[in-house]
Amino acid sequence: MTERVLLQPAFVLHARPFKDTSLLVDFLTRDYGRLSAIVRGARSQQSRYRGHLRSFVPILISWSGKSELVSLNQLEPNGSPILLEGNSLLAGMYLNELIVRLLHQHDAHPDIFDDYYKGISALHQNEEIEPTLRRFEKNLLVALGFGFSWAHAADTSNPIATSQWYAFEPDLGFCENLQKFNQRTVFSGAHLLAIAQNNYDNHDVLRTAKQIMRIAMQVRLGNKVIKSRELFI
Predict the structure, then answer these.
(1) Does 190 fall in a domain?
(2) Quick check: is 17 in a domain?
């Protein structure tokens, strides 16, 4: 039986040509997760979707279908476009790529949708880019079931101490036993506790957070490449 969904809050994550005049679009929806949809005739001059299938624009979409690839039936604005420029635009593209690469289709995560909306809104308001990205990455890992404690050691359950150093294992968290784990991924307890509170006032703390998130994300991405990182460089 064909499923029909009406007026679901969504954002465009990625779009690419499909056949002669259509587009294949990845959407992030609030209650249905990531969705791939055919938007028929979207590239024609007469298309009613022209100008609306852009990233960072809040929309409502309706679709029908009974497979992973559905057909878009309706689209309407759901708020003002969130305008991003320069490095903020690259940061927004990075968030889009992370979701496309890590979130399975039809895997509902309203919390990811809400965090994404907050993240791109923060970028639009010219909040600092790196803390915004780190907060989103932390929340994304938790939502996908890959989170770890920033306040307790994974191997002993002892509270993280500001004066100690910890080895990071992405599948476990932060470990006190430095002899057992890779010495190259050892981090300051004081930094970990600051990151736990999303306190990025110290540049060294922010750098630590970026290193940890790069390691954690790469494990989840595997061989998948995040192209927007190259644009930052």
Answers:
(1) no
(2) yes
Q: What is the pLDDT of residues 99-129, one digit of tens each?
A: 999 999 999 999 999 999 999 999 999 999 9
Is the pTM for the entire model greater than 0.90? yes
- The Cα 211–Cα 142 span in angstroms is 18
Supply the range of the domain harboring residue 60: 3-77
How many domains are there within the chain?
A: 1
How do residues 178-233 score in pLDDT, each as one tens digit?
877 666 679 999 999 999 999 999 999 999 999 999 999 999 998 887 877 666 55
